[in-house]
Design goal:
alpha+beta, elongated, three-stranded mixed β-sheet, 122 residues, two-stranded antiparallel sheet
């Protein structure tokens, strides 16, 4: 998983260079920031997406409805501020069971049953 936006695209080339075996990639990369699944289809397991669209929409909605308050606004899982990308480019790489487990973990994180370190407060 690169954490450098488009400057991490070398990792995509590296997994592609490792090739395929029996028609399946031998190595995978995880995209960041936006859906990068289409960059190297079959080699991108998923992408961690920042849902800036949702954050902007919620802030604008608060302004329009006179509910906006200045300060730090955090958009985590509970506000659909982050997520993972599933589409035609990676649907055959991740089992329905793995997706179900990820969704169950997401619910537990939102409910506070699984504690995630908050870098903003630590």
């Amino acid at each position: 998983m690169t954490a450098a936006g488009n400057s991490g695209l070398g990792a995509f080339d590296a997994v592609e260079q490792q090739g395929k075996q029996n028609g399946r990639a031998t190595h995978f990369v995880i995209g960041v920031d936006s859906n990068q699944n289409m960059v190297k289809p079959g080699f991108v397991l998923t992408s961690m997406v920042k849902r800036v669209d949702n954050a902007v929409y919620n802030i604008v909605e608060d302004v329009v409805n006179h509910r906006f308050s200045p300060g730090l606004h955090v958009f985590g899982l509970e506000k659909d501020g982050v997520g993972y990308a599933m589409d035609a480019n990676n649907k055959d790489l991740i089992s329905p069971e793995a997706i179900q487990e990820a969704e169950e973990a997401k619910k537990k994180i939102i409910a506070g049953e699984i504690k995630v370190t908050d870098a903003m407060t630590n």
